[in-house]
Amino acid sequence: MKNEESRCRRISFHGNSVEHEVESYRSNYGGIRSCFVCHIEELKKPMVEMLLSRFKLLVALDFENSRLDHFPESVGMLLNLRNTKIKVIPKFIGKLQNLETLDLQDTEVRELPKEINKLIKLRHLLVYASMMYYLCNM
Questions:
Q1: Residue whose C-alpha is closest to residue 67's, from 84, 52, 90
Q2: Is residue 104 within 8 Å of residue 82, measured between CB atoms?
Q3: Residue 77 and residue 125: Cα distance in Å, rounded?
Q4: What is the mean pLDDT of residues 71-81?
Q5: What is the average pLDDT across 58-72?
Q6: According to the UniProt entry, where is the signal peptide (predicted)?
Q7: Binning pLDDT at 50, 70 and 90, where does residue 22 land?
Q8: In this structure, how many other beta carbons lie within 10 angstroms of the beta carbon of residue 124?
């Protein structure tokens, strides 16, 4: 079992029991690269920080149908952020130098901070057509 745990690269948490599940994962799962957190009614900042501290090699974090209303600054090393449901992009987004994908399609974001121009590795910015006005005026 230990060998299988160390080879695990993706992990998924569903429903509101995610906090207890994440606490149960110890260093055996240190190789996790992608984490999917689905269908959480309200995802608190300490929970996201716990995810980031448990999985040191994490590069992709997907919050499908989960309510995360703000990012902690500890997301700085991620390459992909998806399905966050946030309302405002924080100014420290410019510090996410490794971010390659930012998916804002199912969020309530209506404006992007000018700091988004600092994302030198950003390859994919996914937005709805209604947001194109803001992008054109940057």
A1: 84
A2: no
A3: 17
A4: 66
A5: 73
A6: none
A7: low
A8: 11
Average pLDDT of 21-42? 73
Domain 2-136 class, CATH top level: alpha beta
Per-residue pLDDT, 135: 57
Secondary structure of the chain: what % helix, strand, coil (to 5)? Answer: 35, 15, 50
Separation in Å, CA 116 to CA 68, 91, 94, 111: 20, 8, 5, 11
Helices (H), 14-126: 18-24, 45-54
Name the β-bridge partners of 38: 14
Query: Mean pLDDT score of the chain, rounded to an integer?
Result: 74
Say how far apart CA 41 and CA 83 lie, in whole Å: 13
Query: Looking at the predicted structure, is the pLDDT value of residue 102 above 80?
Result: yes
**Structure tokens of 5?**
């745990």
Query: Residue ranges per domain, the chain?
Result: 2-136
Per-residue pLDDT at 1: 45
